[in-house]
Design a protein that fits this description.
Layout: H1 12-34, E1 39-45, H2 49-64, E2 68-74, H3 80-92, E3 98-101, H4 111-117, H5 129-137, H6 145-156, E4 165-169, H7 176-184, E5 193-197, E6 234-235, E7 238-239, E8 244-246, E9 252-254
Parallel strand pairs: 1-2, 1-3, 4-5
Antiparallel strand pairs: 6-7, 8-9
């Protein structure tokens, strides 16, 4: 007898609408208690088209739930010290609850130095080492957006995760690694046994892979143009989940061109 697999569509829009409704109520309660709504800011350095679109969507999302939002635009020629000065001012701003510095940054600016300069209690991207450490320990903290969104999807649709085997593809500090940590924590959603696959991973027993290759063979994407997504696996020698990828040489690589694994 042939078994028929069944699947459940996790409707992100439906989940997002419900979350926004709850956030809007929370924002109104915050205003009633302290006399002002939550205030978030985003710093955009340069004129990268994908980053601009991404940040502007965040501004609209804030406004839709009653948050105050600020977008700070800086030219691509901004010196690293000048950006760090802006971050210092935002850290000290008592009327600002949190902010992000949109990645990627121009090549002359050290992204790690910028991440470390952001006060952990205002690091809403959840990239600061203190927030990463608190996440590992299961303490209250800001979580990276994509893993947090996936957890919210699982929670919203009451997906049972305890005792399941979860395979996470990609070990980036933005998506893959935090996702593996969240799925393995002793809370719901969590309690999974997690396999973290990456560019050096061979075939995993019992897991299907495209016949043309598996993680660790061919081209490997480390991040797409807006720098906000994690890794992707390859098919036919070309990365297939973004029109352009950045290979280990950090050059723009159109689909179909082969680059070396990292």
């Amino acid at each position: 007898m042939t078994e028929t697999a069944t699947y459940q569509l996790l409707d992100g829009k439906r989940c997002g609408d419900a979350l926004r409704e709850g956030i809007a109520k929370g924002a109104a309660e915050v205003k009633a208690k302290r006399g002002r709504v939550p205030h978030l800011a985003a710093v955009l350095v340069g004129d990268d088209g994908a980053s601009k679109t991404y940040v502007e969507s965040k501004v609209k999302a804030c406004e839709s739930v009653g948050f105050r939002s600020s977008l700070i635009r800086l030219p691509g020629t901004t010196a690293e010290d000048d950006l760090l000065h802006h971050i210092e001012q935002l850290n000290k701003d008592k009327d600002l609850d949190g902010f992000i510095v949109q990645l990627p940054l121009p090549e002359h600016i050290d992204e790690e130095k910028v991440t470390l300069a952001i006060a952990p209690n205002k690091d809403v991207d959840g990239f600061h080492p203190e927030n990463i450490g608190r996440m590992v320990l299961g303490l209250d903290c800001f979580l990276p957006a994509t893993p947090s969104g996936i957890v919210e999807l699982l929670r919203h649709f009451s997906i049972e995760t305890a005792g399941k085997h979860a395979v996470v593809v990609g070990r980036s500090h933005i998506v893959g690694t935090p996702m593996s940590i969240l799925l393995s924590r002793n809370v719901y959603p969590g309690n999974c046994t997690v396999t973290l696959a990456h560019s050096r991973t061979g075939p995993i027993p019992g897991q299907p892979y495209p016949s043309s290759g598996y993680p660790g063979r061919g081209c490997w994407q480390t991040r797409n143009d807006n720098g906000r997504h994690g890794e992707g696996w390859c098919r036919g020698g070309g990365c297939w989940d973004s029109p352009y990828s950045r290979c280990v040489q950090k050059e723009r690589v159109p689909i179909g061109r082969r680059c070396e694994v990292r």
